[in-house]
Amino acid sequence: MLARYRILLPVISLALLLCLTFWMQPRAMSYFGLNLLFNLAVPIALATIAQMMIIMVNDIDLSLGAFVSLVACVTATWLNDAPLIGVLILLALIASYAAMGAVIHTLELPAIVVTLGMSFVWGGLALFLLPTPGGASPGWIRALMTVKPPLIPMAVVAAILIAALTHILVIRSKIGTVLRGIGGNTRSIARAGWNVTALKATAYGLSGLFGVLAGMALVGLTTSADANIALRYTLLSIAGVILGGGEFTGGKVSPVGAVIGALTLTLAASFLSFLRLSPDWQIGAQGAILILVLTARLLFSRKGAAT
Amino acid sequence: MTSILMGAATLALMAGAVHADSHSAATADKRIALSNNYAGNSWRQAMLQTYEETAEAAVADGVVAAADAFTTSENQTTEQAAQIQNMILQGYDAILLNAASPTALNGAVKEACDAGVKVISFDSIVTEPCAWRIAVDFVEMGRQEVDYLATRLPEGGNLLEIRGLAGVSTDDAISQGIHEGVEKHSQFKIVGSVHGDWAQDVAQKAVAGILPSLPEVVGVVTQGGDGYGAAEAFAAAGRPTPLIILGNRQDELKWWAEQRDANGYETLSLSIAPGVASLAFWVGQQILAGEDVPKDLTVPFLTITQDDLDSALETTPEGSVANVSYTLEDAQAVIAGAK
Asked: Chain B residue with minimal CA distance to A31?
C-alpha cells in the first residue's frame, strides 16, 4: 500500500507548484515556457537518478556534483576534439565508479567517506582538464538538447523518457529487484547465492552511467564547461531523491518520484525568483519547501501506519 | 508658397523633436533586468547600489517601465543560467549580465537572443556572439600607469610590480599593459614582481617579503586594492616611499591625502568604477530605443588626479571604492566612440 502512495505526494507537490507558477507567470504556460522552465532540470533529473542508484543500496554519494563537473569538462574537451578518446575516458569514469562500489563493499568502508574523498579527486581532475572555463559542446549533444519535438517540449519528453526507462530498469527488471533487495536486506541476497560485491559494483556503475549522461546533457545546454559547473548537484540530487519519495534505508526508492523531485526542486527555485524574493532568503526558502514536503510525508506515513 | 515652406519647416522641427524624444519615449514600456552572479565584496555592493539608484530614477522619469536587479545566491553558473531563462519567461526586453563564467552561460544567452531579448554583458562578459559586451581595456590601464610614471620621472629607474590574483585574465591583461609600457619607456626597469591578490594585507606581506632583496625602487605599479599595503610595507622597512600608483580604494585615497598634506605627495589613482552597471543600463536603453550599437564597447576607467582627490575622498564611503554614476550622455559617448 505504501509503495503506491509514495508516488502521490511528489506528484501533488509538483502539480501545486506548477499551478502557482502558472498563476504568477502565465507566460510559462506554453511550449516555449515549459521548455525554459524545465530544460536545466534534465541534467539534474539524470544526476538524481544517479544518486538514487547509490541510495538504493543504502549508501550515499557526496562526490556526484564533482563527478558531473568532471564529465562536463571531458565532454567539452576530449569528446568534442577527439570523440574516440572522449568515449574511452567516459567509459573509464563509469568503470571507476563501479570499482569504487566494489571497494566500498569488500573493504567495508563507509561510502560517505570514500565518496567525499573521491570528490576531491574528480574536482582536481576537472581543474587539470579545464583550469579556466571553456571548451565547446559536441554538435550532436547540442542538437539533442535543443531539439524541438512537436507538441511536447524536449524537457518534458526527456523527463518522461528518463522516468519510464529507469522505472523499468529499477522496479520491473530482475536486476533492479535484486539491487533494491541489497538495500532492503543484504544478508538474504548474499544467502540466496548472489555475489553482493558484483551487485554493488553494478549499482555504482549504473550511478556512474547516469552521472555521465547528466554531465553530457548539461554541456549540451550550457555549450561549454568549467570545473565547478555542477557542484550544486550533490545536494540537489540527494534532495531530489528524498523529495521523490525515496528513503535513506531499505532500498525504498522511486525512479519516477526522483525525476519528479528534480523537476520540483528546479521549479521551486524559479518560483522563488518569480516571487522576487531577495537572494539572501532564497536558499532558506528552498529549504523551507523541502521541509514542508517532508513534513507532509511524515504525517501521511504516520497516518498510514496508524490505520 | 510661404505656407508650404512654413509647413515643411514645422514638419522638420517636429521630426527633430520626435527624434530627440525617441531615446526615452521609445522605451517607456520596456523592462530591463540585471542578472548578477555575486554580491559578496565592496565593489559588487557599490555596483548594485549604483544600479538601483540609476534604475529608480529612470523608472520614475518614465524612461523604462521596470529595471529590476537579481543576484544569484550561490555564484554558480547553472543557477545563473536558470535565472536568465526565468527572466526570458518574465518577459524582460533586455538583460544586463555580470556573468559567473565567460562561456558556461552561452546556452542561456542564446535562448534569450532567440526569444528576442537583448543581452548586454558587462564587467565579466560572455563570449556568445549575439550578446553585447561592455569590456574594460585592462591592457590600456597598465599602459597608462607607466605613461604617467614617465611624465613624473623622466630619468626613469627601478619599478616594483604588484600583480593581482594569479590565473585570472584581468591580472594577465593589466600586467601585459605594464610590460608594454615599460618597453615603450625604456628608462624603466621592473626589478621585482609579487602577487598582492588585490588585497591590502596580502600586498603588504608580499612587498615586505621582497623588499630586502631589491635595489632602490622609484615607482610601484599596481592593479588596485594593493597600493596602501605596499606603502605600509615600504614605511615598515624604513625605505623612502616611492611613487605608488593607487587603485581608487578608500583606504588608498585617505593615505594619499594624508601624505599630500604632510609632504606634498603626488600620484595617480585609476580603476574601474562599479558604476559600470549604470553605463550598461543606459547602453541597454539605447539598444531598446533602436539605436545601432556596436557589439563591443569599452568602459572608460575612473582616474583620480591630485586635483580631484578631495572630492573623490569625500564621496567615497569608508571601506568602499571611488565610484561614478554614468548618464545617458556618457553611454552615447561610449557608443559613438566604438563606431
From this structure: B89
Please state which CATH class domain A2-20+34-301 belongs to: mainly alpha
State the Cα angle at B281 between B276 and B283, rounded to 5°. Answer: 90
Determine whether the interchain pair B106/A222 forms a contact, defined as Cβ–Cβ distance below 8 Å: yes
pTM of the model: 0.79
The C-alpha cell at B223 is 592593479
To the nearest whole Å, the CA of A185 is away from the closest chain B CA by 38
ipTM above 0.85, yes or no: no
B71 and B39 housed in the same domain = yes
Picking from B87, B93, B95, B103 by the largest number of A CB atoms within 10 A of its own CB, the best residue to mutate is B103
Inter-chain touch B89–A28, beta carbons under 8 Å? yes
Are B122 and B213 in a shared domain?
no
Q: What is the Cα–Cα distance from B184 to B25, expressed in whole angstroms?
A: 49
% of chain B residues with pLDDT over 90: 50
- Domain check: are B168 and B230 in the same one? yes
Residue A3 clears pLDDT 70, i.e. is over it: no
B66: containing domain? 27-136+273-300+326-338
**B chain contacts of residue A228, beta-carbon cutoff 8 Å:** 76-77
- Sign of the alpha-carbon torsion through B332, B334, B335, B339: positive
User: Domain residue spans in chain A?
Assistant: 2-20+34-301
β-strand partners of B118:
B94
Chain B hits for A272, CB-CB cut-off 8 Å, are none
Are the Cβ atoms of A269 and B74 closer than 8 angstroms? no
How distant is the Cα of B74 from the closest Cα of chain A, in angstroms? Answer: 9
Going by C-alpha positions, the residue among A247, A220, A205, A84 that lies closest to residue A155 is A220
Lowest mean pLDDT among A38-52, B36-50, B78-92, B199-213: B36-50
Cβ of A27 and B89 within 8 Å?
Answer: yes
Residue B321 phi, psi dihedral angles, 5° rounding: -125, 145
Cell 556618457 found at:
B330
Work out whether strand B31-36 and strand B66-71 pair parallel, antiparallel, or are unpaired. Answer: parallel
Is B312 within a domain?
A: no
Task: Name chain B contacts of A280, Cβ cutoff 8 Å.
Answer: 73
Q: Does the residue B264 lie in any domain? A: no
A279·B78 Cβ contact <8 A = no
- The angle at the Cα of A259, spanning A255 to A260, to the nearest 5 degrees, equals 115
> Taking CB atoms and an 8 Å limit, are B85 and A37 in contact across chains?
yes
Average pLDDT, chain B: 86
| C-alpha torsion A33→A35→A41→A43, nearest 10 | -160
pLDDT(A213) > 70 = yes
Q: With CB atoms and an 8 Å threshold, state whether B86 touches A274.
A: yes
CA distance B66 to B60: 9
Position B63 in a domain: yes
Tell me the backbone φ, ψ of residue B265, rounded to 5 degrees: -60, 135
Residues B121 and B146 in one domain: no
Does residue B7 fall inside a structural domain?
no
Q: What is the CATH number of the domain that holds B236?
A: 3.40.50.2300
Q: Hey, is the C-beta of A132 within 8 angstroms of any chain B C-beta? A: yes
Contact A132 B110 (CB under 8 A): no
**Four-residue CA torsion sign, A217, A223, A229, A232:** negative
**Quick one: which of B333, B338, B328 has its CA closest to B26?**
B328
Residue with cell 558484483: A198
Mean pLDDT score, A136-161: 92
Q: Chain B contact for A184, CB < 8 A? A: no
Q: What does residue B278 show for φ and ψ, rounded to 5 degrees? A: -70, -35
